[in-house]
Amino acid sequence: MFLTTKLHFNLHHQHANKNIINNNNNTCFCNYYNTKIRPITIYNTNPLIITTCKVKSRSMQGDENLIIRSSLIEPDGGVLVDLVVGEGERGAKRVEAESLPKVKLTRIDVEWVHVIGEGWASPLRGFMREDEYLQSLHFNSLRLKNGSLVNMSLPIVLAIDDETKGKIGSSSHVGLVGLDGDCVAILRSIEIYKHNKEERIARTWGTTTSGLPYVEEVITPSGNWLIGGDLEVIQPIKYNDGLDNYRLSPKQLRQEFDRRKADAVFAFQLRNPVHNGHALLMNDTRKQLLEMGYQNPILLLHPLGGFTKADDVPLDVRMEQHSKVLEDGVLDPKTTIVTIFPSPMHYAGPTEVQWHAKARINAGANFYIVGRDPAGMGHPTEKRDLYDPDHGKKVLSMAPGLEKLKILPFRVAAYDTRENKMAFFDPTCSKDFLFISGTKMRAYARSGENPPDGFMCPSGWNVLVKYYKRLQVEEEQAQQPAVLST
């Protein structure tokens, strides 16, 4: 895996406002994820602590007395968006939402409400209207009123069908209805425009081939219209799956970085279990930051928690596996924060990796690690990668709105058969290195075969083996013919 780290040089800070979160009667997104583990709360709700320290950074010539503060990256647009209404307003907003024409949300629509409402897509304040949609689709960015650009590589839109459009009529506002039938949000000053699915698919994925997971799940069955507007989220989105303590908003993360007195934060996006090659690269990143003069670099281990394709390891299993990696000391719990990124996954390669980087800027991370073929997948109908594995890191270095990021290259990590551990690849003795893909890793776990010693911590590997054994039993039971009682 070839990894690069991206450095954000903007060192201005936006103080986060206090946000009171009511854990009772929160919007329930139930039964989407299996409840397997009960994590402890890692977010401390004490008032925001602002800390500073002076460091000497060899990468910043002439800035030896530069003051570094934690979570100092300005969110896109300068102000972190927070669209969740205050607790005292929720009753009135709920009554108003019930009086409006309704738009029913899918489970992935609710995930996007979560993403927009917490500010991951700042400065976006709702589902995109047509001008925002076209800018995102054709330019991968949005131009703000002051003339500046922010990255926005993925259209974040809400589709409706002809029947819903007819029911909305001339109304300026609509209520958004969650999976349990309750209104989760209001969309104000709406605009309805045509949903050209073919154009959207072609420009986002660079292909219209069949079998693209997000297309099959979301776009193909969706309506022929898109509805945009300003979003008001009536109450925080909760999933009640035992993992809500891990779903920290960008505001909460910025506060947590400050509480831990971090002077650098480096984010690692993943949707797979953590093996020792990942850990090698994350630990090496921290080592480099220390050598640059930072005193307390914090790792944001940030697994994707929204929609993923059917053969990916489920979120609850991944989170349990990540906890074992910390328990075994493969990553240091004192310098690592594990929290869930709520976005759905598009598998759109270089287009999507820009979204992943942009969202972490809004969360306050000032370094971003990007791997080989980020957000990519195998071609749905051919035996090859859908995207060039190196294009993700190259695109990030040129993407509009991400100019504040600087790439620092890493070497490839692979399994060293001489040392029986994951190590940086040495091309002079390539025959001694073994590359274990995610597909191969899943095949090991499904068959019950152990990977080479040193590939993954044993307790973390056992989590995967147990999951695949359970999955195999469920598949066998599903294939058994039903027995009719007389």
From TrEMBL:
GO molecular function: adenylylsulfate kinase activity; ATP binding; sulfate adenylyltransferase (ATP) activity
Keyword vocabulary terms for this entry: ATP-binding, Chloroplast, Nucleotide-binding, Nucleotidyltransferase, Plastid, Transferase, Transit peptide
Record-level GO cellular component terms: chloroplast
InterPro entries: ATP-Sase_PUA-like_dom, PUA-like_sf, Rossmann-like_a/b/a_fold, Sulfurylase_cat_dom, Sulphate_adenylyltransferase
Primary residence: plastid
Pathway: Sulfur metabolism; hydrogen sulfide biosynthesis; sulfite from sulfate: step 1/3
UniProt keyword annotation of Cytoplasm present: no
Subcellular location per the Swiss-Prot or TrEMBL entry: Plastid, Chloroplast
One Gene Ontology biological process: sulfate assimilation
Domain of life of the source: Eukaryota
Catalytic activity line of the entry: sulfate + ATP + H(+) = adenosine 5'-phosphosulfate + diphosphate
Keyword ATP-binding: yes
Pfam families: ATP-sulfurylase, PUA_2
EC number in record: 2.7.7.4
Family that this chain belongs to: Belongs to the sulfate adenylyltransferase family.
Name of the protein in question: sulfate adenylyltransferase
Highest classification ranks of the organism: Eukaryota, Viridiplantae, Streptophyta, Embryophyta, Tracheophyta
